Amino acid sequence: MADLSGGSEAVAVALWPPGEAPPAFQYSPESVAGADGELDPAEVTFPGCSCRSSSCAPPGCPCLSRGHNYSSPGLRLAELQEQPFSRPVFECNSLCCCGEGCRNRLVQRGLRLRLQVFRTRGKGWGVRALQPVPRGGFVCEYAGEVLGSAEARRRIRAQSPQEPNYIIAVREHLHDGRVMETFVDPTRVGNVGRFLNHSCEPNLFMVPVRVDSMVPRLALFAAVDISAGEELSYDYSGRCHNFPEASREDKPLEEENSLRKPCYCGSRTCASFLPWDSSLFSTPASSP
Q1: Which of 196, 185, 191 lies closest to 158, judged by CA?
Q2: Which residues have C-beta within 8 Å of that of residue 162, sequence separation ≥ 6?
């Protein structure tokens, strides 16, 4: 069976049906620096921990003191759901003294599940699991070009309404009121995550996971137990474990409705349109 990743993943990404394939793009298991050269996700800026054990544990490891950590085989969802917001995840990195088997290394190990990119009915290409996925388990990364805000908005405005929009804008609200933005575009360079469809009742949720620097990896985890053969989806607005008002989705003006894309998720609570973020179509005011 054809491998969409071309052997670049530890586990082959299957394609269905045989003989068909999505439009060509460059497969990359991890995010790369965008053409604008503003951000380099491969740059190492975090110091490593000095833990000498085979697997780090709180409270001794500084990497685990900043936010959530893992329990086999994924996120500690009990802790996550007790909070009205998503706390960050910091993995041990390339400068840490712990071994490669440390349990605080998960997303950086890449794809470990058998996934299939398949032709859906009415939604183009989608992704389904070929094996059961436990609730909280890591599924895959949403990888692509990491762009600065100016280039992300330029690309969005250059698209026609008929073109698929792969660019995702992730906004993290910090404790001091600042908002950290991350833009990832897998249109030209990306991984299996680019084929995940939106759902108003998703079975995945996205968490920014930091490994080597403040540029996060956009990791997708199972929100529920997922059966083999089930299509994988997440809410493009980011709503799952966060309060709805935390979303930056705006009600579109009447003249903007023509730019919105219909939603075909078929869920009971379907909003009829894909999430909308008008800020990507506007030019931010310059600072004085």
Answers
A1: 185
A2: none
Counting Cβ atoms within 10 Å, is residue 271 exposed (0-12), middle (13-18) or buried (19+)?
A: middle
CB neighbours (10 Å) of residue 69? 22
Query: Hey, what amino acid is at 94?
Result: S
Task: Grade residue 66 by pLDDT with cuts at 50, 70 and 90.
Answer: confident
- Distance, in Å, from the CA atom of 187 to the CA atom of 166, rounded to the nearest integer, reads 6
How far is it, in rounded angstroms, from Cα 178 to Cα 42?
A: 24
Sheet hosting strand 138-141, strand order edge to edge: 89-90, 204-210, 217-222, 138-141
SS3 for 129?
A: strand
pTM: 0.89
Beta strands in the chain (DSSP E): 14-16, 26-27, 32-33, 70-71, 74-75, 89-90, 115-119, 125-129, 138-141, 145-147, 168-173, 179-185, 189-190, 197-198, 204-210, 217-222, 231-234
Whole-number Å distance between alpha carbons of 135 and 118:
23
Rounded-to-integer distance, Cα 28 and Cα 69, Å? 26
Amino acid (1-letter code) at residue 283: T
pLDDT (tens digit, 9 = 90+) per residue, 23-46? 999 999 999 999 999 999 999 999
Helices (H), 40-148: 77-82
Q: Is 249 exposed, middle or buried (0-12, 13-18, 19+ CB in 10 A)?
A: middle
- Is 115 in contact with 68 (CB distance < 8 Å)? no
- Rounded Cα distance, 210 and 189, in Å: 20
Gap between the Cα atoms of 33 and 186, Å rounded:
11
**pLDDT tens-digit map of 206-256:** 999 999 999 999 999 999 999 999 999 999 887 655 433 334 344 444 445
**Cis ω for the linkage preceding 59 (within 30 of 0):** yes
> What would the two tokens of residue 205 be?
């949720």
